[in-house]
From TrEMBL:
GO biological process, one term: mismatch repair
Keywords: 4Fe-4S, DNA damage, DNA repair, Glycosidase, Hydrolase, Iron, Iron-sulfur, Metal-binding
Ranges for domain HhH-GPD: 35-186
The organism of origin for this protein: Flavobacterium degerlachei
Family to which the UniProt record says this protein belongs: Belongs to the Nth/MutY family.
Protein's recorded name: Adenine DNA glycosylase
UniProt xrefs under CDD domains: ENDO3c, NUDIX_DNA_Glycosylase_C-MutY
Source organism, top-level taxon: Bacteria
Length: 344
């Protein structure tokens, strides 16, 4: 009990004032938790506020067009979260009359809601005594109790969840869950934590054994794939351009992009020009082609590094179904393309 009481006392003094902490509304908590998957709080907060402003209720989000949702999400990455968010809002609004499930097991049935998110909503909205286990919780518990379990293993989550449940005051699960995550985010940070000011520096097993920087143990390495994208930024006599929607499964599904040539490596100017002439503008007259960026922009995703070059392609005459500059800015784009458009 000492651990839990000390942790909660620390939290009540040190917690950040975050907009989703001032409510038990499951819609707002669900929205924040989906946004904060793979996203830092500082980055996610403005998006949360924008979404709440645009879609104050689950019915508003359900009625929105997917492109509007993706446009507001632009820059947060992991866009499948936004697509699942929209589908789940539609399901809750139409099938559940706007009422979110009120327990952990039923919350797991929602698209895009996994064990962590279900536990967060169940405890924060409904005070269900179910522990959250995220990276912060793994780190705090593994260090405090000197647990060398490989957190990449599927069995690790059950082990840590059982320990967290044992430590959790069953009459105050929401505060305990918030506290342990906040402690991992602010105090027991991944690299170089300031253990000298930590409230647990007399009882933390990892600190006593000088193992803080070795825990938690995580063995599995992510294999990163390199991909080479060449985007064709077409301009005709009206200065209209061409964009297309990525409809295939994979990164950036349902976002927009310029016509794309994907290659196995960085290719020469002559190679790209030949591909453009053969594959894209057979019936048009290409006036000139030039590189916007001589060096590739490297855009890092979790499992992929994209090496991106933009190529200006001037076409003589008028292209069919061209997109003007004002309309171009209304489409949802991957952030790397959005940033390119904004600079031009």
């Amino acid at each position: 009990m000492r651990f839990s009481n000390s942790l909660i006392q620390w939290y009540l003094i040190n917690k950040r004032d975050l907009p989703w902490r001032n409510t038990t509304n499951p819609y707002l908590i669900w929205l924040s938790e989906i946004m904060l998957q793979q996203t830092r709080v500082a980055q996610g907060t403005p998006y949360f506020l924008s979404f709440v402003d645009a879609f104050p209720t689950v019915f508003d989000l359900a009625k929105a067009d997917e492109e509007q949702v993706l446009k507001l999400w632009q820059g947060l990455g992991y866009y499948s979260r936004a697509r699942n968010l929209h589908k789940t809002a539609q399901y809750v609004a139409t099938e559940l009359n706007g009422v979110f499930p009120n327990n952990y097991n039923d919350l797991l049935g929602l698209k895009g809601v996994g064990e962590y998110t279900a536990a967060a909503i169940a405890s924060f909205s409904y005070e269900e005594a179910v522990p959250v286990v995220d990276g912060n919780v793994f780190r705090v518990l593994s260090r405090y109790f000197d647990l060398e379990t490989d957190i990449a293993l599927a069995s690790a989550k059950k082990e840590f969840a059982a320990l967290a449940f044992e430590l959790m005051p069953k009459d105050n699960p929401a505060t305990f869950n918030q506290a342990i995550m906040e402690f991992g985010a602010l105090q027991c940070v991944p690299k170089s934590p300031n253990c000298g000011v930590c409230l647990f520096n007399d009882s933390c097993a990892a600190l006593q054994k000088k193992k803080v920087d070795q825990l938690p143990v995580k063995s599995k390495k992510i294999k990163v794939r390199n991909r080479y994208f060449n985007y064709l930024v077409v301009s005709d006599d009206n200065e209209d351009t061409i964009v297309q929607k990525r409809t295939s499964k994979g990164i950036w599904q349902n976002l927009y992009e310029f016509p794309l040539i994907e290659t196995e490596a960085v290719e020469s100017f002559d190679y790209i020009v030949e591909r453009i002439e053969k594959e894209f503008f057979v019936n048009e007259t290409i006036e000139n082609v030039m590189e916007y960026n001589e060096k590739s922009i490297i855009h890092k995703l979790s499992h992929q590094h994209l090496h991106i070059k933009f190529w200006k392609v001037n076409i003589k005459g008028i292209i069919e179904n061209g997109t003007d500059a004002a309309t171009l800015r209304t489409f949802p784009f991957p952030i790397v393309i959005h940033n390119f458009i904004e600079k031009e």
